[in-house]
């Protein structure tokens, strides 16, 4: 059975202050939820994130090799102590069988390792690495941070997002001479 969705059109001039209040309420709910997760030790226990050079090279190679279709993989790593800090070191990718086209990827979560998956990476075949609504849904389900790589499929074309689809910075790319992954591209 196929279902269709129809978008509700907003009347001109509506949603101004009310839309702002809704955004504020979402932010408050998110902070309360994050506080509760932290209280019950369900938040990540690391101060920094480092992605090993080989992983960055693999991401760029897989994305370029999959073009013009999207690719998806899971970020695998472990938390290590370095200089008194807990550092999440992403040192591998877990690639499940998936189906892809130019606009999306589809996969099952069967046999997905749960103890060392910290996020996802996927490609966009164009020049935008901004998340779609479907990307945000994926982010909220799997891990703490997520990468999107777009053309030309280099380290500079990788953007990082938290599990809510908000841009984050400060991810260290080991061995690339890059101090962090840049933000999204339009």
Describe the overall structure.
This protein has 186 residues and is of the alpha/beta class. The protein is built from three helices and nine strands. The strands form two sheets. It has a seven-stranded mixed sheet. A hairpin with a 2-residue loop joins strand 2 (72-82) and strand 3. Mean pLDDT is 77; it is low at 1-13, 37-42 and 179-186.
Give a short account of the largest sheet: 7 strands, mixed
CATH superfamily of the largest domain: Cytidine Deaminase, domain 2
Categorize the overall geometry. Answer: globular
The ordered H/E elements are HEHEEEEEHEEE
According to DSSP, the number of beta strands is: 9
Number of helices: 3
Fraction of residues in helix? 25-40%
Classify the beta-strand content into a percent band: 25-35%
* Low confidence ranges: 1-13, 37-42, 179-186
Descriptors:
Cytidine Deaminase, domain 2, 2 domains, seven-stranded mixed sheet, single chain, 25% helix, alpha/beta, disordered N terminus
In brief, what are we looking at here?
The chain is α/β, with parallel strands linked by helices and 186 residues long. The chain is built from three helices and nine strands.
């Amino acid at each position: 059975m196929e279902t269709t969705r129809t978008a509700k059109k907003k009347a001109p001039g509506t949603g101004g202050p009310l839309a702002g209040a809704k955004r504020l309420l979402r932010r408050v709910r998110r902070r309360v939820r994050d506080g509760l997760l932290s209280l019950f030790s369900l938040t990540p226990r690391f101060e920094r994130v480092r992605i090993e050079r080989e992983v960055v090279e693999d991401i760029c190679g897989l994305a370029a090799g999959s073009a013009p279709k999207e690719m998806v993989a899971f970020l695998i790593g472990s938390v290590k102590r370095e200089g008194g800090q807990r550092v999440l070191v992403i040192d591998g990718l877990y690639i499940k069988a998936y189906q892809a086209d130019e606009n999306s990827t589809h996969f099952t979560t069967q046999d997905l390792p749960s103890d060392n998956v910290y996020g996802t990476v996927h490609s966009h075949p164009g020049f935008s690495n901004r998340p779609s609504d479907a990307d945000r849904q994926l982010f909220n389900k799997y891990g703490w941070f997520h990468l999107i790589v777009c053309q030309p499929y280099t380290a500079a074309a990788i953007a990082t997002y938290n599990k809510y689809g908000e841009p984050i910075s400060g991810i260290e790319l080991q061995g690339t001479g890059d101090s962090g992954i840049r933000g999204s591209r339009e």
